[in-house]
Known about the structure:
Aminopeptidase; 5 helices; 5-stranded mixed β-sheet; alpha+beta; globular
Amino acid sequence: xxxxxxxxxxxxxxxxxxxxxxxxxxxxxxxxxxxxxxxxxxxxxxxxxxxxxxxxxxxxxxxxxxxxxxxxxxxxxxxxxxxxxxxxxxxxxxxxxxxxxxxxxxxxxxxxxxxxxxxxxxxxxxxxxxxxxxxxxxxx
Length: 140
């Protein structure tokens, strides 16, 4: 039986282009990988960038955008398929919330599946369709 790998978390590190593209491809986010220069500019412009490495492999990433005072938008949270269900996404989210503890609003948009609903509810988020809030998005 293989020993569990130690996960190393980093705040505002600088993952390589190759690492980032490999992770985004692994999770199937090809809209991002079609324009790698744009993706890397977005990564560089993030308010907060949290990464998770197992040995030297990038296995998780969370990035936020916002003003750091009144709004924190969790833009991306990804965990490599081989490392899911090990608490990496939850730990990235915990760190992001801790770093933005004094920010009034933390927001994210995600796919509507029972799995994602269950994950974010367990992390203390409320869905905008519960009757208290409304969300609007304009996507291209």
